[in-house]
Write a structure and sequence with these properties.
Number of helices: 2
Structural class: mainly alpha
Largest sheet: none
Helix content: over 70%
Number of domains: 1
Radius of gyration: 13 Å
Strand content: under 5%
Number of strands: 0
Distance between the termini: 20 Å
Order of helices and strands: HH
Length: about 50
């Protein structure tokens, strides 16, 4: 789930950075949150049982 959120935030960041005129602090806030979620995904690991 965290990886999905990170990917969505990355896509929104790229869209905002390349296509839309959004204030700069908001675009960079999205990338920071996406990176944090991406790191948390790998630190916490998967909650699903492995077979």
């Amino acid at each position: 789930m965290l990886l999905t959120l990170a990917i969505i935030l990355l896509i929104l960041w790229l869209a905002g950075f390349l296509a839309f005129h959004v204030t700069a602090w908001f675009i960079h806030l999205l990338i920071v949150v996406a990176i944090i979620l991406f790191i948390l995904h790998f630190v916490r690991g998967s909650a699903a049982p492995r077979v």
